[in-house]
Amino acid sequence: MEKIMDVAYGVSVKAGLTLLEKNLLPDILIRRFTRLLLAGRLHSGYKPTAEQQLTDLLRFINSIKEMPIAINTEKPKTQHYELPTAFFELVLGRNMKYSSCYFPKSSSSLEDAEEAMLAVYCERAKVEDGQTVLDVGCGWGSLSLYIARIYSKCKLTGLCNSKTQKAFIDEQSRKLGLQNIDIIVADISTFEHEATYDRIFSIEMFEHMKNYGELLKKVGKWMKEDSLLFVHYFCHKTFAYHFEDVNDDDWITRYFFSGGTMPSADLLLYFQENVSIVDHWLVNGKHYAQTSEEWLKRMDKEIVAVKEIMEMTYGKEEAVKWMVYWRTFFIVVAELFGYNNGDEWMVSHFLFKKK
């Protein structure tokens, strides 16, 4: 009977994905199906006893210690950045922050929420004017540009893996008249660097990594004796898992997060060979859920322009499918972080000092 149920489930998933690609699934069904998958993830992730839960986490930790710093580094880059920057300018906020924002009030605009989270980073990392700052995995430069504007005497170095992102940041720097930003295009897993910094930030990059011990060893070499490392990653509050493309319903992995990791809220506390924890915070998942809902609203508002970008990127025959995929991605992110009132999947902030 169990095998029959599995077959029936597989058939229904394939049928659902076919309807999704043709834009025949209403949002309400996409959201319901997403919540069912999330419930299944929780069922498999939570163990019967606290002892078994810890054993499972330690098994995961030992496994990633045997892995390289990152895997499939090229595929995730094309999954997210194959689209022109113009698409992200339409759906993200003015600061181009492609990560969780912070909504002090539910009525806050996306731009205000971007700025609020950027301010939280600087406050928690104890940023002071005149410091040297490294932004590892800087994306479109939301944090680097923010610090460069607010702390004009700071010298910023951003590390990204996309030439189009560097071009965008360089252009924004010119428009704003900023002379204190230098952007380097490189793969963090192989990048070697001699400089050291007063503050190092990593915002939603660790989720694309595997061997956190080796990664923190590398980052630790870029820290001065009195410098601080601030890490923001999304996570599950209790358990960790890999994003794997094994079943038909592993949709997010296949199209958006190949080689990714969902860390647990405390996972980095097990990797303190080269850094030591100074402070640790959690941010309720509802902030990320609202962030993604805002991205979805903006995409829908600019759907005509979005369609043109999709056609230019994927061709007219594939444009509808990819429009649906991106809308669904934003819906899934919103449902993931909004699940259980934001108290299952959330954001974890860490502040480390050099050991």
Describe, in plain words, how this protein is organized in 3D.
The chain is an alpha/beta fold. It has one domain (1-354): Vaccinia Virus protein VP39 (Rossmann fold, 3-Layer(aba) Sandwich), CATH 3.40.50.150. The protein is built from 13 helices and nine strands. The protein has helices spanning 2-21, 27-45, 50-64, 74-81, 85-91, 110-124, 142-150, 163-176, 212-220, 251-256, 286-301, 303-314, 316-338; strands at residues 132-136, 155-160, 181-185, 197-203, 223-236, 241-242, 261-262, 275-283, 345-354. A seven-stranded mixed β-sheet has the order 3-2-1-4-5-9-8. Strands 6-7 form a two-stranded antiparallel ribbon. Helix 12 (303-314) packs across helix 13. It is globular. The relative contact order is 0.15.
For this entry, give a set of tags.
single chain; 355 residues; alpha/beta; Rossmann fold; 7-stranded mixed sheet; two-stranded antiparallel ribbon; 13 helices; globular; disordered N terminus
Strand content: 15-25%
Instruction: Give me the side-by-side strand order of the main sheet.
Output: 3-2-1-4-5-9-8
Q: What top-tier CATH class fits best?
A: Alpha Beta
Number of E strands: 9
Q: Which fold does the CATH topology refer to?
A: Rossmann fold
- What value does the Rg take, in angstroms? 20 Å
> Outline, from the CA principal axes?
globular
Give the ordered list of helices and strands.
HHHHHHEHEHEEHEEHEEHHHE
Q: What's the N-to-C terminus distance?
A: 55 Å
